[in-house]
Amino acid sequence: MTVASWGEAGVLALQVPGEGPAGRRGAASRRRSLGLMLLFAIGAGTAGAILGLVKQPDPRNDQVESFAWTTAAAIQAARNAEEKARTAERALHDAQSRIQALTAFGAADELADWQEAERLGVARFMKDSPALWADERRHVEATIVREARRNGLDPLLVAAVIQVESRFDPFAVSDAGACGLMQLMPPTAQWLAGETSMRPAHLFNPVLNIELGTSYLAQLMANFGSDLNQALIAYNAGPAVAKSLKRGSRAWKRLEAYPKAVLAAYKALLTPPQTVASR
Questions:
Q1: Which CATH number fits the domain that encloses residue 166?
Q2: How far is CA 144 from the centre of its chain?
Q3: Among 51, 69, 87, which residue terminates a domain?
């Protein structure tokens, strides 16, 4: 029968009855054997890992696989980006080609309008304006012809209105706050522009001012049955005032001075320069 007992060093030992010290020696021998077996197992595992017999987990494999996946994804993204860049470059080239074509077409139209303005004598009053020179003067002349024809008006009539209103000074401002070549009030300009935000400073742009002013004059002509006197009074004093006027009244005589001045300038532009010089 085997009996468990505590040894001198506090170590639990198995003892067989009748075997004294010899039993302790056997226990110690068995402990040594167990230790040797553990060491052999650890050594075998290590040797197996070295020889490939036992597969040990290698965290480096995950890192390599992750790096390979990231590299492949980056290459694909670069290819996609390159294709998008080519597509954008083609679209930009097409847009530039269209812009160049439109610019060439617009330049040809503006040249024709300017030549027409020169033939008509639209710029005859511009020599009095120190604010319009060279290219800007040509732009203004061409715009007068283009916008007048677009709105069914005589370009010389538009030029006469500009002469009376501002003497071709694009930065003119009246006491009432009217701005630019055709002396438009900011609220009127905003109404003409519709949803587009309009600031008073925008009216100092000669081309925009002529576009809006010519459109306004054409609308007044239509509203007053092509009566040029009433349309011009409405342009100067407002449509409501023009509608309320009675011919021959004191207000009529006072406000009639404006259309008379415009018609005088219009007549001067209609008269050939040679005829004026011979007088």
A1: 1.10.530.10
A2: 30
A3: 51
Q: Is 183 left (phi over 0), alpha (psi -120 to 50) or beta?
A: left
Q: Angle, nearest 10°, between helix axes 206-223 and 134-150?
A: 20
The number of distinct structural domains making up the chain is 2
Q: Is 102 domain-assigned? A: no
Structure tokens at 172: 């003119």
pLDDT tens, per residue, the chain with 279 residues: 444 444 444 444 444 444 444 455 555 555 555 555 555 544 544 444 444 444 444 555 666 677 677 887 788 888 888 888 888 887 777 666 665 554 554 688 889 999 999 999 998 888 777 778 878 899 999 999 999 999 999 999 999 999 999 999 999 999 999 999 999 999 999 999 987 788 899 999 999 999 999 999 999 999 999 999 999 999 999 999 999 988 888 888 899 999 999 999 999 999 876 654 444
Is 187 within a domain? yes
Residues 6+ apart with CB under 8 A from 241: 233, 234, 251, 255
pTM, to two decimals = 0.62
Given 141, 147, 165, 211, the catalytic residue = 165
| Structural domain containing residue 231 | 109-278
Residue 179, classed as helix, strand or coil, is strand
DSSP code of residue 15: E
In whole angstroms, how far apart are CA 184 and each of 51, 154, 166, 204? 96, 19, 11, 10
How far apart, in Å, are the Cα atoms of 245 and each of 221, 235, 240? 16, 14, 9
Task: Examine the residue annotation and report whether 165 is marked as an active-site residue of this protein.
Answer: yes
Alpha-carbon distance 275 to 279, whole Å? Answer: 7
